[in-house]
Amino acid sequence: MLEYLSEEWIAAADAALRASGLCSSGGERFVVEQHVGEVVFHIVFDGTGARICSGPTVEPTVVFYQERRTAVRIAIGDMSAEEAVLDGEVVFKGNPMALLAHRDLLDKAEDVFADLRTRTTWDK
User: Fold this and answer.
1) What is the rounded distance in angstroms from the CA atom of residue 107 to the CA atom of residue 101?
2) Strand pairing report for 90-94 and 2-3
3) Pick from 37, 2, 35: which is nearest to 16 by CA?
4) Which domains does the chain have, with CATH numbers?
5) Pick from 89, 86, 53, 87: which is nearest to 71 by CA?
6) Going by C-beta distance under 8 Å and a sequence separation of 6 or more, which residues neighbour residue 109?
7) 21 burial type by CB count under 10 A (0-12 exposed, 13-18 middle, 19+ buried)
8) pLDDT 10s digit of each residue in the chain, 124 long?
9) pLDDT of amino acid 124
10) What pLDDT does 36 receive?
11) For 34, how many CA atoms within 13 A lie in the half-sphere containing its CB?
């Protein structure tokens, strides 16, 4: 089992994304940076594929901020990301239109992580 947001978990998420063949349409670069409590990582989608890396990135398209308990609830399906934003439990900065334009891509990435979720422990 992998501990949620550990370096091993991020490496497994990266391997899953890279193996998926998922990439942005038209090769457009789309970068999502996540701040979950003290953990920061980012996901890059472009014409060459998708990958996840620890730490912040230089030019994210959007940045999300949330507490770990909120991220866990979203990851295990107890709360939708949209609901968390509306409730103020997730704050985001950046281009909201980019989120709408890449919604299908983000949904497909969630599907890629389905197996990883079954191998994840959620409590710290």
Assistant:
1) 12
2) unpaired
3) 2
4) 2-118 (3.30.1050.10)
5) 89
6) 17, 20, 22, 43, 45, 50
7) exposed
8) 999 999 999 999 999 999 999 998 888 999 999 999 999 999 999 999 999 999 999 999 999 999 999 999 999 989 998 899 999 999 999 998 998 899 899 999 989 999 999 999 998 5
9) 57
10) 97
11) 18
- What one-character-per-residue DSSP string does 8-61 give? HHHHHHHHHHHHHT---GGG--EEEEEEETTEEEEEEEETTEEEEEES--SS-S
d(CA 70, CA 92): 14
Q: Which two tokens stand for residue 64?
A: 């999300």
Q: Are 52 and 14 in contact (CB under 8 A)?
A: yes
Residue with tokens 């472009």: 46
User: What are the Cα distances from residue 55, in Å, to 41, 52, 86, 96?
Assistant: 5, 10, 26, 22
What residue type is assigned to position 29 of the chain?
R
Residues linked to residue 91 through DSSP beta bridges, in sequence order: 65
